[in-house]
Amino acid sequence: MNLYGCAGEYGAERIHADLEGYLFINELVAASSDSSDWIELYNPTDTAIDLSGFYLSDTFSKPLKWAFPDGTIIEKEGFLVVEANNPEAEIQIDFRLDNDEAVILTTPGGTTVIDSVDYLSFHVPEDMSYGRHPDGGAIWMTFPDPTKGKPNKP
After folding, report:
1. 5-14, 32-41, 62-71 — which is least confidently predicted?
2. Range scoring the smallest mean pLDDT among 69-78, 96-105, 123-132
3. Pairing mode, strands 48-50 and 3-4
4. What is the DSSP letter of 19?
């Protein structure tokens, strides 16, 4: 398996030059009545990406809030879901998403932002998601039917 952006091969701070604009925070749910909050990442490239040691946070001033476990891979042209409050989830962050925060994805060193979404000014109704359309695109919108781990559909 080829791994694009692997810290061992490229060095942690060189990763950002390769992945910025090629790895996206694609969709999120920050207010759910019957399931966990979650963040979906999207890899539009034709190569799998090793996320070992990359970070997710909900606060720009604390970018090193949660590190991806070693061996976390997002497959080529694939989606990876990280859940916020589901103890049975395969990958789970140790903080909750509020409906007035941000999500930040940074390099293993935590000094370079790969992608971020600040949804402070948007009120996403409960049980709806906020995501890019098309996947990896520049437009963010509210989706009445979240598409967790799948292509976004307005």
Report:
1. 5-14
2. 96-105
3. parallel
4. H
